[in-house]
Amino acid sequence: MKTIEQLSISEKRVFIRVDYNVPLENGQVADDTRLRATLATLKYALSKKAKIILASHLGRPKGKRVLELSLAPVAKKLSELLGQEVKFAPDCIGEEVERMVFSLAPGEILLLENLRFYEGETKNDPEFAKALAKLAEVYVNDAFAVCHRAHASVVGVPSYVSECGAGFLLAREIKYLSALLEKPKKPVALVIGGAKVSTKVGVLMNLLPRLDKLIVGGAMANTFLVADGHTVGTSFYEEEFVEEAKKILTTAQEQGVKVYLPVDLVVADDKEATEAENVSIFEVPADKAAFDIGKETRKLFAEALAGVATIVWNGPLGLFENELFAKGTIKVARKSAAQNAITMAGGGDTLRALKMAGVARAFSYLSTGGGAFLEFLEGKKLPGIEVLEKKS
Ligand code: 3PG
């Protein structure tokens, strides 16, 4: 696959697919991580005096023009981050957009309106893809987070543009994730949490042969505890995935992967509770639910991380939004960051949790992807990446 540095972009109209699907609050960008993650590519393209056309989706407007999902606030925020004007087009295709694109001077940037205001984007309609492709002389994908979607701007446009490649963000994501799958630095530990086993079975099964240690927390640990014969009071767990959890535990054992499940839990009446208690997994009260790993488990997990060479993290270990239930995630996050290891994490909740623990910057690599991160780790081929590979 070509990277942007191998493309001739000087003074050309360069269509860059970015993922600016960011949270907005009161009409302003509430978290600019995904914008910052593209700055290296944008600065490089600016240094080459490219005429930059940025395209993104925001939310899921399902082909309707939803005012609250306009990318206008993103153009404003990006202008601040770059210290230069980012023009904004009121649409993403059509005559007015073409006029704006064709009058761009070298070194200028234009952000198009939300691609998903057209159904053609998610349906990968060839006519819509051609209307976008018409704007571009060169196509760059710097939107790892949407590479698992076979949408028009991800797979359609590159098939109509001859010069295509990956931006720095995408290239970096592929580099770290491929290294993990192909030649991981051992020993490898996977820290996995979040609510559901069901969404992570594919990742667990694909990663198991590469792992030395599997550390399970969050509500999904409850399903594993039930699989291991425990009762978990009123805690959330997925009954229909207990058998799957058993299979994962057996496979781990067969493959020599050491599994760490909680040995104690922080339990309370409900997630808004203001009081909680620490109980052993053998003594979870019938009327209480677990919302964090317990004190002994924090120690156990922290010790398990000592000396590992690669740590991959997806999913918080407790309901960290309530500070009563944040200790597990914070302690294990800090311990991970303090290791002399390659530390990788992905997923929106995970990144928020690492920020809260004050260690996000200490991680070697934070994926901008949620679904894309998981699908890559499941071993699936992402359509947005495949199309670029075929072009080279
Ligand atoms: C994401 O936030 O994971 C990507 O932007 C993809 O968004 P989607 O799930 O709406 O396709």
From TrEMBL:
Database matches in Pfam families: PGK
Keyword set, alphabetical order: ATP-binding, Cytoplasm, Glycolysis, Kinase, Nucleotide-binding, Transferase
Chain positions recorded as (2R)-3-phosphoglycerate binding sites: R34, R116, R149
Binding locations of ATP: K200, E321, G347, G348, D349, T350
Protein's pathway: Carbohydrate degradation; glycolysis; pyruvate from D-glyceraldehyde 3-phosphate: step 2/5
Enzyme's top EC category: transferase
GO biological process, one term: gluconeogenesis
Subcellular location: Cytoplasm
SUPFAM superfamilies named among the record's database cross-references: Phosphoglycerate kinase
Family annotation (InterPro entries): Phosphoglycerate_kinase, Phosphoglycerate_kinase_CS, Phosphoglycerate_kinase_N, Phosphoglycerate_kinase_sf
Molecular function terms, GO-annotated: ADP binding; ATP binding; phosphoglycerate kinase activity
Top-rank taxon, per record: Bacteria
Residues that hold substrate according to the record: D19, Y20, N21, R34, H57, L58, G59, R60, R116, R149
One term under GO cellular component: cytosol
Catalytic activity: (2R)-3-phosphoglycerate + ATP = (2R)-3-phospho-glyceroyl phosphate + ADP
EC number: 2.7.2.3
Family assignment from sequence similarity: Belongs to the phosphoglycerate kinase family.
Oligomer status and interactors: Monomer.
Protein name listed in UniProt: Phosphoglycerate kinase
